[in-house]
């Protein structure tokens, strides 16, 4: 970790306008939980689990990680400010590790925290365990997404589009049609973790992917993504004018 | 062009010498089918060297290769004998001013300089930042965000960031862009001073007057190739296939013209609007002979001025081939 790179990355990620949109989206999750709690229907663990899995895990988590993950290094390379960090006597793996940690931290702050608060606010039987389980699972999922998106931003300048395609087409569409594709879905991994962590308290939802598969695939994906990011940044080139 | 540094001969002669601050040996860089830099060899010694070339000639690519931000497709780029690419350690020796204007707009000038000093691992980054800020005259604006700086101020902040760690080598890509004339002169003087202290400075510019004022030597890049290198006046003199033009003022221009026209190296003499203009195939021979011929003709010489010795003339000649 490099403190200067961490501070610059943090300020860069948080100073963007789209971060305000993410804060608003996070607030929506909490707001829906509060409204449900105040409604005549009252607290319900099934609703809480649905809210956290659909709005929290399936919507908020990938969007937040996509923006922070692709923005941590990719935006700097695109804008040209990366040269002020890369042309310094600092090992490239330190740059990757720092940027990844900041992206993960920001993603957790805007994903896991609202999920925790929303879970507690929505209430229902065992909602505390449910909220903690989903919050911890979303923290792992955020880290996994960020690793993928950071690596993607070092492979292509269109990382945001590819990342969005993965979330919407692969996870949102194909994973619903073909069960095999769920194996490579971070969302499905996260739901498997959430089920393992939260379900003993409230048996209100079921993940599609077995926990063992989720753990193994997620670990492999994380290692591959970080390795790609490290290798790409170590050999990355910043071009001058091209004739 | 006999002053251009040939790749093969130069590569052999470079090996025998001790490592220079910057050394390129048979360097080529291509992007797919596009050759951006083609078999370029040269070594830079302490002093200021101007990098000249038309847009798209490969100047920025060369600077990025030297800065270790691009890997050569062929050949080698070394910084004091170490490979420039893939070794972050070289950045202790290099300060780089990139051409792109973008900076961290949310940082103040002071924060930007301190961040650069810390990333260089300096023991007292705050003092180093203050020194650099003072050198580029940004003290009054140091607590304002870079996003609110004018283009010239941002350029000065970039220059300050490049030398905050007191590097031995400074690479500057169009460093005077956006600066007003006073800032330009100040920065030029500053670069000259850094060079006199023994630093190796390479800067690109498309403004020839800037290069002429600051640089001891020039590297002229055309279509990715090194067309010429060395003192630009010496380069001009080596262009023997193109006459040198002089304007002369004397006590009797007509008699001096008659005297000069008989010289074998004088290719033409004209008297236009009371001004004697002579064209010579050999710069040195003309310079040596003109005073003697004037004396023989009993003419007092007031002024002998080579009119096409400017860098612009050299450059346009080289570009036209």
Question: Could you explain the architecture of this structure?
Answer:
- The complex is a heterodimer of chains A (about 240) and B (about 325).
- Chain A has 10 helices and no strands.
- In chain A, helix 7 packs across helix 8 and helix 7 runs parallel beside helix 10.
- Chain B is elongated, with a radius of gyration of 23 Å.
- In chain B, helix 3 packs across helix 4.
- In chain B, about 45% of the residues are buried.
- The N terminus of chain B is likely disordered.
- Chain B folds into 2 domains: about 230 residues, P-loop containing nucleotide triphosphate hydrolases (Rossmann fold, 3-Layer(aba) Sandwich), CATH 3.40.50; about 80 residues, Alpha-Beta Plaits.
- In chain B, the strands form 3 sheets. In chain B, strands 6-7-8-3-9-10 form a 6-stranded mixed sheet, with helices on both faces. A 4-stranded antiparallel sheet of chain B has the order 2-1-4-5.
- The interface between A and B is large, with 31 and 46 residues.
SS summary, helix count of chain A: 10
| CATH architecture type of the largest domain in chain B | 3-Layer(aba) Sandwich
> Percent of residues of chain A in beta strands?
under 5%
Percent helix of chain B, as a range, is 25-40%
Rg of chain B (C-alpha, Å):
23 Å
What's the helix-strand series of chain A? HHHHHHHHHH
**Number of domains in the coordinates of chain B?**
2
Biggest chain pair interface: A-B, 31 and 46 residues
How much of the residues of chain B is beta strand, in percent?
Answer: 25-35%
Shape of chain A: globular
**What is the string of helix and strand elements of chain B?**
HEEEHEEEHHHEHEHEEHEHEEHEH
Tell me, what is the CATH class of the largest domain in chain B?
Answer: Alpha Beta
